[in-house]
Automatic annotation (TrEMBL):
Protein name: Transmembrane protein
Transmembrane segment boundaries: 68-87
Lineage summary: Bacteria, Pseudomonadati, Pseudomonadota, Gammaproteobacteria, Pseudomonadales
Alphabetic keyword roster: Membrane, Transmembrane, Transmembrane helix
Species of the source: Marinobacter lutaoensis
Matching Pfam families: DUF6127 (PF19622)
Length: 95
């Protein structure tokens, strides 16, 4: 071990006290972080549930939009193929 600097006192704590101090510091930090984003107080639990619900709805809307776009593209392609076949086989009274 390196020798201690004369100006830096060495502090020792029992493991239990250290863990308790770290736990309190973590809890304070978490509360401060929640307060910074406006999720503190009695309604915080309900606010978080609503946020999760909104995110689920957004993900469902995105998935549905992509599915709809694929269906529209597929339907358009099939209609174009059918129109091409109808013209090719002169189904509409052409020459």
């Amino acid at each position: 071990m390196a020798p201690q600097d004369k100006h830096t006192p060495l502090v020792t704590l029992p493991q239990e006290d250290l863990e308790d101090m770290l736990s309190r510091a973590a809890e304070r930090g978490a509360r401060r972080a929640l307060a910074d984003v406006g999720l503190d107080g009695e309604n915080a639990r309900e606010d978080i549930r609503e946020l999760r619900s909104l995110l689920q709805a957004l993900n469902l809307a995105k998935r549905t939009a992509w599915q709809t776009m694929v269906r529209i593209a597929t339907t358009g392609l099939l209609l174009a193929l059918m129109a091409g076949l109808a013209i090719k086989f002169k189904l509409f009274g052409g020459q």
